[in-house]
Write a structure and sequence with these properties.
about 80 residues, mainly alpha
Length: about 80
Amino acid sequence: MRNEEIKKMLAGVIDDVPVHEVAAVMFAQHYTDTRGNPTRESWQSIVEIYGISKAKGILGSVRSIDRECLWYCVEFFF
């Protein structure tokens, strides 16, 4: 992703996100906001939209990114 795209997403602007990926991006944001404890409803929504196989892939990707960010922060600040 370009820096400008990242800045927009962090500011809550997702107009550059392809329409078919918006739900996944919003789920990723929700996952992070809830510190890895998304609501059952949000998970069910992702499964309904993408199917169980893709939903598990999205969850795995989000967890991987979330974990990488955590380690970066730990290494950077400590």
